Amino acid sequence: MNRRTTLSALMGRKITTTKSAASTKLTSFSLAPYTGEWTSERAAHLLRRTMFGPKTEEIALATELGLSGTIDLLFEEKPMPEPPLNYSFTMDPLVPVGETWVGKIYTADEGNLRTVIRANRERSLVAWQMRLLIESEMSIREKMTLFWHNHFVVQKSTVRDPNYLYDYITLLRSNATGNFKQLVKDITVDPAMLFYLNGRQNNRRNPNENYARELLELFTIGKGDLAGPGDYTTFTEDDVIEIARVLTGWRVFDYLTVNPDAPRGPVFVSNLHDLEQKQLSHRFDNVVIENADEEEYNVLIDLIFQKPEVAKFISRKLYRWFIYSEITEEVEQTIIDPMAQLLIENDFETEPVIKTLLSSQHFFEATLIGPMIKNPLDFVAGMFRQFDIKIEGNLNQNYRSFLRLDQTMEVHQMTYLEPPNVAGWKAYYQAPAFYQSWISSATLVPRMQLTDLMATTGYRFSGQNIIIDVLAFAAKVENGTDPNVLIDEFTKILFPQPISQAQKKALKENLIPGLPDFEWTVEYGDYLADPENNDLRTGAENRLRALVKAMLVMPEYYLS
Amino acid sequence: MKRRNFLKSATALSAPVFLNGLQVAAMSNSSLLPIINSAPNDRVLVIIQLNGGNDGLNMLVPIDQYDKLMGVRENIMIPENQLLSLTDTLSLHPAMTGVKNLYENGNLSILQSVGYPNQNRSHFRSTDIWTSASDADEFITTGWLGRHFDPQHPTFPTDYPNEDHPDPIAITIGSLISETCQGVGTNFSLAIRDVESLAPLSEGAESDLPDNYYGQQLGFLRNAIAQTNAYGDTIIKASEKGNNLSSLYPEAGANGLADQLKIVANLISGGLKTKVYIVSMAGFDTHAEQVLDNDPTQGIHASLLAELSTAMNAFQDDLKQLGVAEKVVGMTFSEFGRRIQSNGSSGTDHGSAAPLMVFGNCVNPTIFGDNPVIPDEVGVQDGVQFQYDFRSVYGSLLVDWFEASEADVRSYLFADFQYLPIIQGCEQTTSTNDLPIIKGGDLQITNFPNPFIQQTTIQFDSNDEWIKLSVFDAKGGLIKVLANQRFAKGSHQITFQDSRLPTGNYYYHLQTDRRQQTGLMIKL
Where does chain B hold its CATH 3.40.720 domain(s)? Predict the structure, then answer.
């Protein structure tokens, strides 16, 4: 057991109201395939962790397909999305409204026109990304794209160039369940990354070590305990310096270019590259890297990946993304180590290891179903997705509505393409709080305000009223005229674990305050028989709104 | 013995306690305690976290080292005639007129070269070290203030708020709670974005919590909701009662830090008894374009320092006008300083120690420590050698401001604690000309030969006291502790020899429980 886990096990208990001696109740430490009963609860758990807000019919489908059938479906290759469009800006000389700006340069500066064009393209990009989350198909791809974004962080406020940001996120998306080693290579010379961690300013005369350090500490091998001055067990301060030299010579053309011949992508400038030998420390077996010009970064990364700690480091991160934050000694030995082994055996292909993890006995442990506090994107996009909240309208209205949603993410503390810093969101690395760091007085209030709004009045925006269609949501429930069935079925979709009888009773009070069950059966039945009748419709709808509103503020809804 | 157990026994004992051979309980609090008009229960500590690693050498410029700095960071140096002079040998960045004003009013204390042994240059790890106050090779998940609060509030958050403690223990302005306030069981800080957004939340129907991970997290959420509601009321009331009077705050939205501090001043003046507020600003990770190529007085770093300085000055002005200035002390910190050498991108990379500011009516308005010594030959990785361990700053504030005992501070914070008279009285000083500069240099320490090839001898005077003598390399790494013991009165010599060491710059660091000094030693 490493020291950090020991200490967090000793000192990191969060809840004072529950004593947790044998609290984890983990019984299965095994990546062996899950062979237990396949129920809709298990299916919903798998989908919640791999998608944003699974829908009623998707949970039904997964229940029917079984575990391996569902896994196959989640990993099925899907075509890449169409690129984002110019949705309304009429002053971009090279990009008419309705066409994509991807791959387009700018025209010579007229006043601040270029700045305005850039800002419009960026808005189009983030709106497009928000739509991809909400309109995503039944696939693991968006969850994994976000995983890699949290791993290989760039911030749009630093990179600034929408084209390079598009290329970056497309690289992650197209390799979402691809090869980790190849992804590290590609990201090392990715233009957005060269901007973000100053790789483009790294040259033989003035090495800039920003990327070199994060490549080791955050992207591949991780930082171990301090073993001596400047020696972090997995690498040393001198390695940072030497690796910065390996990576010298890469440039990117400025993001506001007006030059039609400017290459889009990284450019290797050999006279900016350090040709001398680079001497790594004993942590890398004192290897000397000879000059290999633009191939040198590949040599370096192959070398880093020879260290077994790389596979463990990424395995822990995948574990915290898909399973739980606490990695006990048993988990380290029985889950992380075999995951790492599997990665190495498959030359760092991630698909086999993720599939194995998601199909394992461990994944379906009862104590691991539901203890993950949803991150804000999961919470917000998941709600839009699972309730089929429609954002339609013409091109302009559609993009503007998704843009608005993206902009509201700031108060929830998680904006796509804008993690707080290069380490990503705290929830996935900061012990002992981990997922709990999403929750504070400052974030609880806007979460609850948002669900209240979506469940009751909705918000009018850009020509549409964006709101949960509670009648459509209820219509998916068979025998929904029985209020107990209705609440049970809603619970299965919205909460990870069953709730108590007392809670069900309290929820029923929201649906039919002080009334016997049959009143719902009659009223809702009447509406179903005559859905065009406005009185019947409004009566049923308002009762359902009260129920959904009450369910969405329950802390159970915050868990996955 | 575990820290916690030790803490309990240490506080229970009235007999002297020995730590590192040093008798610590001999000194009672009262002998140290400065004259402060506010009652201890009313005192507030405001922490300003500067995320990213602030370039101390361009913030507080040692003028006596200016030429040497020009040799290694010319592309980012501020022209000497543009700097704001504080003393004969120290000047501030020209963007910091507000801080200069604080200094001239006797409201500012600056500690030079604050850091720790074995400087870690990862943002995340070094931030953890600063917030947990651990050794560099020690992993502690509790925060330094969390450990201070733990014994006072052992059951928190159960049954909080209550009659004795109606107000939040600590508040973070922003959306994330602060790691400094992480206790053994829970975090003592409440995060608020602004007072307006504290609407009551629905608490939902209860159920039994299953005894597993799911139950733990569900319990956490329920607690967070209940507490937000409970504290929301008191915060809103304090805010309605409180005020802001300073005209020095920039307009809302123009200075993020000032906006945060304005909320703090408002809540303090409204009578909220919260002990600690944490505010923060980001962006100090200036690897590139720290200064503008055509004007080094402008650029990212200048904007950051202007924001910081303006906000601090406006806040202090507000506190005075609100009549609560004697209750409040502020402190800045950043996870590290930056390299002595600049890089070719008009920026600086991760370094070691840097200055730290403490401000308020009751601070000792002076500059602690010697100017950093810039070697003739600066290695690419060289940082500023630390003089003061940051935990001595924390500990001194806990002792003088929050009346923690020195023994407790040694047990839950820092065994090698050095008391620093950062808090003085709250009397207004009239002229900064009379201010004593607290130098390390009264320790009569030298080494010879220097430069050295094989070995060098360090000679120092002891006043019959515990002395720790260590040698560091220029990256902040601890090479060797040469002595950690009591020395009889008189002059002593210790020889340092390590033939495997590469040539370059090294530092000795001598510390007693009241004084410290560092010096440059060059190995040829």
Answer: 38-439
Find the helix packing angle between A483-494 and A517-529, rounded to 10°.
80
pLDDT recorded at residue B36 = 67
pLDDT surpassing 90 at residue B230: no
Contact between chains at A208 and B214 (C-beta distance less than 8 A) = no
For B409, half-sphere exposure in the C-beta direction (CA atoms, 13 angstrom radius) is: 28
Contact yes or no for A437 and B118 at CB 8 A: no
- Given an 8 Å threshold on Cβ–Cβ distance, is B344 in contact with A554? no
d(CA A207, CA A274): 9
What mean pLDDT do residues A405-428 have? 94
**Chain A residues with CB-CB distance to B139 below 8 A:** 3-4, 7, 225
C-alpha to C-alpha distance for B325 and A442, rounded to whole angstroms: 28
Average the pLDDT over A448-472 and give the result.
88
Contact B363, B329 (CB under 8 A): yes
Alpha carbon distance B395, B406 (integer Å) = 8
| CATH 2.60.40.2550 intervals, chain B | 443-523
Grade residue A11 by pLDDT with cuts at 50, 70 and 90: very low
Instruction: Name the residue facing B124 among A237, A423, A499 (closest C-beta).
Output: A423
- Which chain B residues have a beta carbon less than 8 Å from that of A20? 211, 216
- Average pLDDT of the residues of chain B: 86
Contact by Cβ (8 Å): B472, B505: no
Q: Of the ranges A415-429, B17-31, B111-125, B475-489, which one carries the lowest mean pLDDT score? A: B17-31
Contact B365, B429 (CB under 8 A): yes
Q: b or e along A430-449 (b: 16 or more beta carbons within 10 Å of the residue's beta carbon)?
A: bbbbbbbbbbbbbbbbbbbe
A430·B179 Cβ contact <8 A: yes
Task: Compare CB distances from B190 to A3, A324, A441 and report the shortest one's residue.
Answer: A441
Nearest C-alpha of chain A: how many angstroms from B384?
15
- DSSP character at residue A345: H
Q: What percent of chain B has pLDDT over 70?
A: 87
* CATH T-level assignment (fold) for domain B443-523: Immunoglobulin-like (2.60.40)
CATH for B38-439, options being 3.30.70, 1.10.10, 3.40.50, 3.40.720: 3.40.720
pLDDT score recorded for residue B200:
62
Task: Return the minimum-mean-pLDDT range out of A313-322, B88-97, B128-137, B511-520.
Answer: B511-520
How many Å lie between the alpha carbon of A246 and the closest alpha carbon of chain B? 17
Angle at B395 (CA atoms; ends B145, B444), nearest 5 degrees: 155
Q: Which residues of B touch A433 (CB under 8 A)?
A: 177, 179, 182, 187
Q: In this structure, are residues B165 and B188 in contact, taking their beta carbons and an 8 Å threshold?
A: no
A203 C-beta neighbours (distance < 10 Å), count: 21
Residue from B240, B217, B218, B220 nearest B228 by CA: B220
What are the chain B neighbours of A437 within 8 Å (beta carbons)? 176-177
Confidence at residue B431, expressed as pLDDT on a 0 to 100 scale: 43
pLDDT band with cut points at 50, 70 and 90 for residue A452: confident
